[in-house]
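Hi,

I'm pasting everything inline rather than attaching a file, because the server keeps stripping attachments. The sequence lines come first, and each chain or strand is labelled.
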Amino acid sequence: MGWARLPAAEPALDAVATGATAAPAATMPAGRAGPATDVVGLGRWRALGFVTPGLVLIGVFLVFPALWTLYIGVTDYRLTGTAARAPQIVGLENYRRALTDPTFYRSMWLTLVFVLGSAVLGQNLLGFFFAYALRPARPAVRRLVEALVLLAWILPSSVVAFLWIAMLDRDGGTVNVLLGQVPGVAWLIEYPMVAIVVFNIWRGTAFSMMLYSAALSGVPPSQLETARLAGASTGQTLRDVILPNIRRYALTNTLLITLWTFNDFTPFLLTAGGPNHRSEVVAAYIYNTAIVGGEMGYSGAISLLVLLVNLLLALVYLRVARVRPA
Amino acid sequence: MADVELRALTKEFPGGVRALDTLDLTVADGEFFALLGPSGCGKTTLLRTIAGLEAPTSGQVRIGDRDVTGLVPGARDVAMVFQDYALFPHMTVLDNIAYPLKIKRQSRPERSGRARGVGANLGLAALMDRRPAALSGGQQQRVALARAVACHPSVFLFDEPLSNLDARLRLEARTFLKRLQRELAVTTIFVTHDQAEALALADRIAVMEAGRIRQVGTPREVFGRPANTFVANFIGSTPMNLLPGVVSGGGVAVAGGTLTPSTITPPTAPGERVIVGVRPEYVSLSTTPVDGALTGEVSIIEHLGAVSLVTVEADGALIGATVPEDREPVPGSRVWLSPAPGRVLIYRESDGELVT
Amino acid sequence: MQQRIERYGRAAATIAVLVTVAATTAGCLGKKTSSDTTKNADAKEFTLSIGVNSIAGGKNASQAEWLSNWVIPKFVEAQKAKGRTAHVTLQPSGASDEDYKSKIALDLKTGSGADIYALDGIWVGEFADAGYIKPIEDLVGKDKADDWEGWAQIPPAVQTNMAYNGKRYGVPLGTDGRVIYFNRKLFAQAGLPADWQPRSWSDVLSAAYRIKAGVPGVIPMQLNAGTAMGEATTMQGILPLLVGAGHQIWADGKWQGNTQALRDALGMYQEIYRNGLGDPVIQQDAKGRDKSFQAFAEGRIAMLLEGDYFWRAVIEPTKGIAKMPDRDQTVGYALIPAKTPGAGIRGQDFVSMSGGSGHVLNPASKYPQQAWELLQFLNSKDATIASVAGSPRLTQRQDVNDEVLKNNPMLLFVSQKVLPLTAYRPGFAVYPRVSQALQQATLDVATGTPAVDAAATYQRTVEPIVGGVGKVASG
Amino acid sequence: MRSTARAVALRVLAYVGLGVGTALFALPLLWLLSTPFDAAPRYAVRPPSEFTLGNFGEIGRNPYAVSSLVNSVVLALGTMVVVVVAAALAAYALSRVRLPGRDALLYALLLLSSVITGTAAMVPIFLLIFQLNLIDTRAGVILVLSGGLLPAAIFLLKDFIDTIPRSYEESARVFGASPLQILRHIVAPVARPGLATIAVWTMVQVWGSFLTPFILLRDPTKQPAAVVVRTLYTEGGSPNLALISSFSLLYSVPVVLMYLFAWGRYGFRFHGGIKS
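And the predicted assembly:
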């Protein structure tokens, strides 16, 4: 997404981080109905009219089911069995259960490893590397590499999952064939987390690459020139000129890919959370409790916990974004 | 064609910032009028309020015989040129110029004929099919002007029309703009922070500060007799000398000397603290002692082309004077400064208003 | 800051209101439908649909084809002869069992969906408890429900597969039995007989050791383990061992907990997977069962415990999903032995497990009588014969089995030798969760946990599921 | 001199990194390109042992394969229209008019939409659609998918519109254009790259979505390709690589084409209006 105009992602973060809003206060009259309430003369009521279709759709088809899910989270509701006929309110029992269940903590831990390894480090660094290294490249080379990276991003998840199943297959997978061992290592079983981390880096680097290449094009050439004239090494230039300039992009990028990766279901298609829950990230855990286990109440509670963790992550990022480097 | 009249116009933003403070102003029909002031003085807000892009908190805007205060911008019969020109990037030059006519529901051939005509007048004939992105800054400015001209408004509103051009182009555009306004004779209000631009273009200038108008007048009046120290400070390419002084006897004690009544109009109350204002252009410099002149040492010399600005330190005060380029004194040497007769202005120190 | 706090306060208030609304609306999570047995009984024209997890060109294609090409047209024709116009449609799907189950649970919950659904026998209990399905007699009246010639042809043990609390909820589609398949060529290389029949678990193990020693590169034994294989682990793994150790998973009001029988069964896993007699990796593969099939067909696995499905649909020489052209010569099958002779349930020397799916009526059907008629038709002798055309299986009907199994020694073997020994899983709603706990225990053992520890963990997992210590046998 | 040598070394390193990285990205994709045309498809990437188009013939024999692709297009286009129109209106208003609680709302919705997946909210969504009498209709699927995608779409689009100079609209306004005219003549065309991005993004999301259409649609002739492709993968037995690879390719081609179209047409590196 947003492989257009990625710098656009920045002002939003900025707006919240500083509590300011993109619309300068100067365009707003003090609650007085006049000819000019805003730049286009939309007026508050018409603006509400514009917002309404979207908000109604979101309200009915997202917020309402979501709140319902949260409600289910305080019941013992199951998809089948007696509890499906007459669900009972069990209060915080589901939360107590989740918070005392080592499998829940394990899935949270695995998710953090997954997010940290594949998104925060993997996609971020590789995306930046591609964006940086491709700048001086010939347009043809640049387009080819970008197209490949993007392709990994836009193909449907079931297809890419199968591509990687084929890559990593124990008996005839490309990796084992290249390593000259058939049957070779059962990658998805022996190294399930490594497999899904590598997979997700492959899958999602495109977004970071796009965002960083947009960000890098915004670094003033004069600053780069200055650094070059001062005899700065590549590392120094990166640290002193480029990073300060793209810092906020990096934060926005990290926030978005963190949230997406946290809730990404695609690893399930590779390992189904296995073997023995060893790659059961939260999205897979919810699927396994809700669909395979039929425990709707419990999975509703888990969803709220996940929401809270996500909220926490988002707030941390916003806080970091607000603190300017000295 | 119409005059523009503002009555007790006040604009208060949420949070209590007063961008316009009970402002009264009349711009005559066909006048080229400049709103001049430092950034944040409310000049752009004033322009936008005239355009209808901002609603005044109280007061009235009249254009011609109409009270337009409650009208939407489109109904005010004004055309505005924005600082960034606001050329629609997805339209050709022709479509841009014709856009106001499209809104006025003119037929396609009619509006493109008219747009072409206006474009040709403004020297854009060869560019009509280009997109704005393919134009130079000067060309973009002309397109924006053409678009405003094409809709034949009774008032033009220009928001910093020249500030996005480089220095050389700006002079050209300035001349062009002035000629255009003369030809069309449409009431024009333009906002600028550049006093030279205002002096060069405008029939009359309103100098603004903090939501108020500090002086309205012709360029000559504003330059020659700034109504207060704010205007005095703001106008002129070299800053006016503003020296603290005390009225004593028949003269004013200033910078270690006394300016005698023969060279200045005497102030009203003896013993009053005043500020003496005199433009460097009106200070003559002598390397030999002159009677009744202020004396000091040359500290800095700045070359301004045909003239040089000499800064002299006289009894702790810095006084500027311009001299022809071939008459520069030696830095560090002692010189004598005498203001030209009738060019010394006395301001009250308490409120900075002109006394005489 | 103050402003922001206010803003969040307002958002919180809005959310609170919405939660209340959701909670009120959600009160109807559990919904009841009343059924009228004579509803639309006389309709001259009616519409019915059948929902199955089979689809042409995909999963279980032959079943989907049988329904749409034989059952539906013939039924419509038969109704026409009676002067009634029937519109029957098939709602096929080709998803994983879990996804299919969720989908039909939602359909049944809202009182919508197809009139007849295909359902795995082990789901009957939980669907019945949820009120999603009802006994046939409640839907069409006791007379109509009992008055079907087919019941006489379906052995009572098979009927229980689609029954719950003593009531028939649906008609089974057939049944199966489990045996140990072995590769005679590999056995010959290890010096084992072509007509091998183990008498005890140690016979099985010693055969495995001989394969391991004599035929390098071959996995001696495939005993399903782990959660990735799901119910296949339970049915083709732990449960056959458990009944071989003398206990059903549920008996006399109690579930098997950390008992000697369970420890014995897990001990067998331990022996196999600790000593390289089986491949623990394949058990954990999301596609492990399919891979084990492939490996057996390619002669890389010597012994494999499976149902007759394996024989007729997997290694079937022409249409199987892992074809073995020389199946009839190469593959032998043996009864599953008890731990020691006579140690099995009911004092048996040999044991097996059986299961199967069937069809149930949707209680919300607008035409319950006609749906029941269609269900009978679907299970009629002619329809059943048509369903096995070209690929014989153990059908629910004895009269059909007698006819179609005549020339099939393997299925005859199952029908005659295995079915008398077999056991069925308990049809309780909690069974699937107990089954998952069992799968987890086998996985623990296969990946190195000692059997006794895995059994203890299992006990702890199962207690809350089945309703407390009192419902679990241990010791 | 040393710094030059180091720079050269770094450059070489960068090229090697790029080369290896690109190869890693290409490898899995090559499978999708070659295997469908291989008469004896395998897991390993290799050029077709014997070129064939026969694998596609097999898809033709699947009664749902072709219709599922059509269904995917219908669902994708339907959702795209709903999302783009609703998101554009909302994002525009949110960008230009200060509504109370705007930013907190946007962030809350974004979080909600990324966390509450179809899995956990499956029951409420099904019951809701059932109550609305939209089970087994494409409209139901489109609405549910739209609801889930809108927050992110609004979020991204608002960012985009925020960068469009307000003077465009003010200028048009002074000329007398009505808000709707401004939207039609100025904002929509200027925001087109952003709209195209959201459109393609929406379609890609819908294209891969499995659970929602699977649960909400009964008639297999209405099911999209995402469901059919899952059928192929979950079918018992060893995977039919011929079928899987060729259908995967057919299933992928439309999204790639959509993407290329949008890229080529709207130049996805657009940087707003004229730089001022």
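Chain C has two domains: 45-176+356-424, 178-354+427-473.

If the labels don't parse on your end, tell me and I'll reformat.
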